[in-house]
Design brief:
Layout (H helix, E strand, L loop, with lengths): L4 E4 L8 H23 L3 H14 L6 H13 L5 H17 L8 H12 L3 E5 L4 H9 L12 E3 L9 H11 L6 E5 L2 H9 L3 E5 L12 E2 L13
Parallel strand pairs: 1-2, 1-4, 2-3, 4-5, 5-6
Helix pairs in contact: 1-3, 1-4, 2-3, 2-4, 7-8
């Protein structure tokens, strides 16, 4: 059965894990302190700093302390909202300047365009913020891909290894869980989605794993090919 909606992960699924860890993260880490110092009086960074203090439980934490904590979270790759918001602001400057370009696999671009043309609703669910997701897809070698998507979800809806998160997404988009296909390279995420009733497929871009409980694809080319949904 052709799904009514497809929900996709980003890292290791539409895009290279290396792009995030070897390009985006070093870019934001190198500019973190300078960006905070230069924008601390602005409303966006001021709100981030307040969120850092709330997360740390230290309402009197000064600018240096907030910056140090953000750097610590960045180095530990913590999935914390104020850090994700700050990274998004830093990356936005890089994309706007043309210094950064979002990486998306060619087969992922072709698949997303194929499914969109067939009327399948497309959504993204990633641990990166919604703003960061839109930056990656909005600045690619293939142009702006954001019009292909009907919506975006991040961990504000819940953790990616929790079945309740997928149930919430199904409710938000108004499509029964059994009519949504979730794509990810992480089996624990597929476990959670399957537990919520989703159809799932494991992306194995580095080669098919020895064993998996789920359908496996090495690229988007074999997932709902055109002849299967014609």
């Amino acid at each position: 059965m052709t799904p009514r909606a497809i929900l996709t992960d980003i890292e290791g699924t539409t895009s290279s894990i290396a792009f995030v860890h070897e390009v985006l993260f070093p870019y934001s880490r190198a500019r973190l302190a300078g960006y905070v110092a230069g924008h601390s009086a602005g409303p966006e960074v001021a709100a981030i700093l307040d969120a850092v203090r709330a997360e740390a439980g230290e309402p009197a934490l000064d600018l240096a302390g907030c910056t140090a904590l953000l750097a610590e979270w960045h180095d530990a790759d913590r999935k914390i909202a104020p850090l994700k918001s700050l990274q998004g602001l830093i990356w936005a400057e890089g994309y706007a300047a043309g210094t950064l370009q979002g990486h998306v696999y060619a087969d992922a671009v072709a698949g997303l365009r194929r499914w969109h043309a067939q009327g399948i609703e497309l959504y993204v669910y990633s641990s990166g913020s919604v703003a960061a997701q839109k930056l990656i897809f909005g600045h690619t070698a293939y142009g702006d891909l954001t019009p292909l998507f009907a919506g975006h979800f991040d961990t504000a809806v819940g953790g990616k290894k929790e079945a309740a998160s997928y149930a919430a997404i199904a409710g938000a988009i108004g499509v029964p869980a059994g009519e949504i296909l979730f794509l990810s390279d992480v089996e624990a995420e597929l476990d959670a989605a399957a537990a919520a009733g989703f159809e799932v497929t494991l992306l194995a871009r580095d080669g098919v794993p020895p064993a998996s409980a789920y359908p496996v694809a090495e690229s988007f080319d074999t997932i709902l090919p055109a002849e299967a949904i014609a």
